[in-house]
């Protein structure tokens, strides 16, 4: 392949699905170190052509050949003859491409992090990029300047501001190849002209970078070194502007008419108010509103905080307790009928369990008494003395059948209650999200909302009903066991007080740690979900820049952090289980000693 050609597509057919090809018979050459413009009507496949070159589309036939150059920071004595040719079969070996998509993709991070995008901070270069994209007036409005977190997907910014940040990221990346997909679509004519002159023609050309620009701004065609015209998914023509003027005079006349019309629009917008001024006014208003809200919150916090010790104790009390309002909301969602059924089934089941234990003890004691009586009467078989197991066995069988029925009824009541509560709370959450003001989505990351609908809903749906059933079962079992033991061996009541105090301190210590660990697990899961959301949305940009290892490593870090938090929470539960087993063993020991004496 010619060493002056950066990308060459020959007889290319590309598609997004298994249907007919989106791009047909594509034959293009993109030269090294030149400004290539791709123009055409809306929907003719300009953006798809960029993505096809990046390997994002499914290739039906044809070849895509890359001549790769090292990035700017590693470029030195390497000559053009050292360029590696990468065919479509190993397109993964191509170099990094700075790609600004038509729909801007931003990280939930600071503005400077969105621009540098994992690259080292070079202040002169950073300032030049900010100036080329006219971002300094917008940065001056932000409360922390370029250190302001602009929110997930840049949601506090306008479309034009997001677009300029996305383009600034592409300009800042030190790659030899830059793909700009319609960067002027959300900009007014003045900003478009400034970005074209200072960003593309000045900055990128001075660095001799290969630029592929998709645009509808035909007035910039005279600046293009190479032009690719598309129509209905095919290449209509390509070449310099002078070549197209000679080979396609009708197309050139159409462009000339449109360029004249755009020049008139430029003169009109010079007199009219600029769209950028309106965007900055809206941004300033949003910042003032947010700062006012934060000021009110700070004043409320100051009025609550009398001193550090009181505040610390208040926080600890809040962590150690679960709001009764939350419990009331959960129980009220179940309804009075289900709660009554659940409570009644639990009481009847445990009453029956105690009755079964009592009947077995009664049966056993009568058997022992019958054996003693048989020995006294010299009977070889207990039945010969008039004792029969049939009555006890019949009653025991009836009690067991009732126990099975009550266990089934309790399980149905628990699952029915959990299903109704989960359904009710999910509908309430969904309604509140749908009816929420836009401010909620401006200040709340998408991962946090997803966490409510995934992890929290899963907890309400699967964990809380079983935990509630286990709590009620354990409570009733404990009360019944203590009652029976105290009735049989009243001496046990002396040891009950220290055991109760021990249980109290164990649960008090555990509840504080358990709640903090649960919050830690939730807090580590939120960045993981946000990272998933951001990565999926920006996969094209990430793959174009060859940043997959960085995002994969970050994903592993978030996953490890969440797994560690989950491990700590599980270990805390096992810690409680072991200590409660010790307490139970002490109860058995005291009861046995009481019976022995």
From TrEMBL:
CDD domains, A to Z: ABC_6TM_SUR1_D2_like (cd18602)
Keywords, comma-separated and alphabetical: ATP-binding, Membrane, Nucleotide-binding, Receptor, Transmembrane, Transmembrane helix, Transport
Coiled-coil ranges (or none): none
Bias-annotated ranges (Acidic residues): 296-311
Domain ABC transporter: 7-257
InterPro entries in the record: AAA+_ATPase, ABC1_TM_dom, ABC1_TM_sf, ABC_transporter-like_ATP-bd, ABC_transporter-like_CS, ABC_transporter_C-like, P-loop_NTPase
Regions that span the bilayer: 322-344, 391-414, 484-506
Protein name: ATP-binding cassette sub-family C member 8 Sulfonylurea receptor 1
């Amino acid at each position: 392949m010619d060493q002056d050609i950066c990308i060459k597509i020959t007889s290319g057919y590309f598609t997004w699905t298994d249907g007919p090809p989106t791009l047909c018979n594509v034959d293009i050459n993109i030269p090294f170190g030149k400004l290539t413009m791709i123009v055409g009507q809306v929907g003719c496949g300009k953006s798809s052509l960029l993505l096809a070159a990046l390997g994002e589309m499914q290739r039906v036939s044809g070849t895509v050949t890359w001549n790769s150059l090292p990035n700017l920071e590693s470029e030195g004595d390497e000559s053009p003859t050292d360029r590696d040719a990468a065919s479509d079969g190993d397109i993964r070996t191509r170099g990094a491409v700075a790609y600004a998509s038509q729909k801007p993709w931003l990280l939930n991070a600071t503005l400077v992090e969105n621009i540098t995008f994992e690259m080292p901070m070079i202040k002169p270069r950073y300032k030049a990029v900010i100036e080329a994209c006219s971002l300094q007036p917008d940065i001056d409005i932000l409360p922390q300047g370029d250190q302001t977190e602009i929110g997930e997907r840049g949601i506090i910014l306008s479309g034009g501001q997001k677009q300029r940040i996305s383009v600034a990221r592409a300009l800042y990346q030190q790659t030899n190849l830059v793909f700009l997909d319609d960067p002027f679509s959300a900009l007014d004519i003045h900003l478009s002209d400034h970005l074209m002159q200072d960003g593309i023609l000045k900055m990128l050309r001075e660095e001799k970078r290969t630029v592929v620009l998709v645009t509808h701004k035909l007035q910039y065609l005279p600046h293009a070194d190479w032009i690719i015209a598309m129509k209905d998914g095919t290449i209509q023509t390509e070449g310099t502007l002078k070549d197209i003027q000679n080979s396609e005079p009708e197309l050139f006349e159409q462009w000339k008419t449109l360029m004249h019309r755009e020049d008139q629009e430029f003169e009109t917008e010079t007199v009219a108010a600029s769209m950028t001024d309106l965007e900055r006014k809206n941004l300033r208003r949003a910042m003032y509103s947010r700062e006012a809200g934060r000021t009110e919150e700070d004043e409320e916090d100051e009025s609550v905080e009398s001193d550090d010790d009181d505040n610390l104790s208040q926080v600890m009390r809040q962590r150690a307790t679960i709001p009764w309002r939350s419990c009331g909301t959960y129980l009220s969602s179940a309804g009075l009928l289900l709660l009554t059924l659940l409570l009644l089934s639990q009481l009847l089941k445990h009453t029956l369990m105690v009755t079964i234990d009592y009947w077995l003890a009664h049966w056993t004691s009568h058997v022992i008494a019958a054996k003693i009586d048989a020995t006294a009467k010299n009977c070889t078989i207990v039945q010969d003395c008039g004792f029969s197991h049939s009555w006890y066995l019949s009653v025991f069988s009836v009690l067991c059948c009732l126990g099975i029925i009550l266990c089934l009824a309790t399980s149905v009541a628990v699952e029915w209650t959990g299903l109704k509560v989960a359904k009710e709370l999910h509908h309430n959450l969904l309604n509140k999200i749908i009816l929420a003001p836009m401010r909620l989505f401006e200040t709340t990351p998408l991962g946090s909302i997803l966490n409510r609908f995934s992890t929290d809903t899963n907890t309400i749906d699967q964990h809380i009903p079983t935990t509630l059933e286990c709590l009620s079962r354990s409570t009733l079992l404990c009360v019944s066991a203590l009652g029976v033991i105290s009735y049989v061996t009243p001496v046990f009541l002396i040891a009950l007080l220290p055991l109760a105090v021990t249980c109290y301190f164990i649960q008090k210590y555990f509840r504080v740690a358990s709640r903090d660990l649960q919050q830690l697990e939730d807090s580590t899961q939120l960045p993981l979900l946000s990272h998933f959301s951001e990565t999926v949305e920006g996969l094209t940009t990430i793959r174009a820049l060859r940043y997959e290892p960085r995002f994969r490593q970050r994903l592993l870090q978030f996953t490890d952090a969440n797994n560690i938090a989950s491990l700590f929470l599980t270990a805390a539960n096992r810690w409680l289980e072991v200590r409660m087993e010790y307490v139970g063993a002490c109860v058995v020991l005291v009861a046995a000693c009481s019976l022995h004496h």
